[in-house]
Design a protein that fits this description.
Blueprint (H helix, E strand, L loop, with lengths): L1 H8 L2 E5 L2 E5 L5 H10 L4 E10 L4 E10 L2 E13 L4 E3 L8 H12 L2 E3 L40 H12 L1
Parallel strand pairs: 2-5, 6-7
Antiparallel strand pairs: 1-2, 3-4, 4-5
């Protein structure tokens, strides 16, 4: 019954690499997560964000499994716009989402509504607001690398390594 509810909620259902993917609007993400839990998918394996600048959106992909049958994996997918990168939190349905939502928040700028703790997880506390390192627009200032020691030809290195190993 729960998977029938999930199919009703989904805008589209696809099969990708043997995994059934339910594509839903952000507004029904929580209902879809509850339907998966009711269907026995009691483990959130991962939450991944995919920056899609050509479509001005961030796609969120959640993978779930059953603890009774860990190889039985399904996915929920939704997308949020750059203009309003907000999605409902599912941390109260799947506690494993708490840290994963924090990571997507700081790395891609997605705000998970009702998540009580969106502090930095991986980046320093003084990281600039609005700078998201997993967005494709993020650029690292490149610095030239120079070494005081000139590089050695590969054959010379191989010979030296061979002598040290023997």
């Amino acid at each position: 019954m729960a998977l029938e509810e999930l199919e009703r909620l989904a805008r589209r259902v696809e099969e990708r690499e043997g995994i059934r993917v339910y594509i839903v609007e952000p507004g029904v993400l929580r209902d879809a997560a509850l339907a998966l839990l009711d269907a026995g998918y009691d483990m959130l394996l991962s939450l991944s964000g995919v920056d899609e600048p050509k479509r001005s959106r961030i796609r969120l992909v959640y993978h779930f499994a059953r603890s009774s049958s860990p190889g039985d994996v399904v996915a929920l997918e939704t997308a949020v716009s750059y203009e309003r990168p907000m999605a409902p939190s599912i941390h109260d349905i799947y506690p494993a989402a708490q840290l994963q939502e924090r990571e997507e928040h700081e790395m891609l700028g997605v705000v998970f509504e009702d998540n009580p703790d969106l502090r930095h997880l991986l980046l320093p506390e003084d990281w600039p607001h609005g700078v998201h390192p997993l967005r494709k627009s993020f650029r690292v200032a490149e610095e030239p690398f120079t070494s005081p020691t000139p590089s050695k030809p590969l054959e010379e290195l191989k010979k030296k390594l061979g002598e040290e190993a023997g």
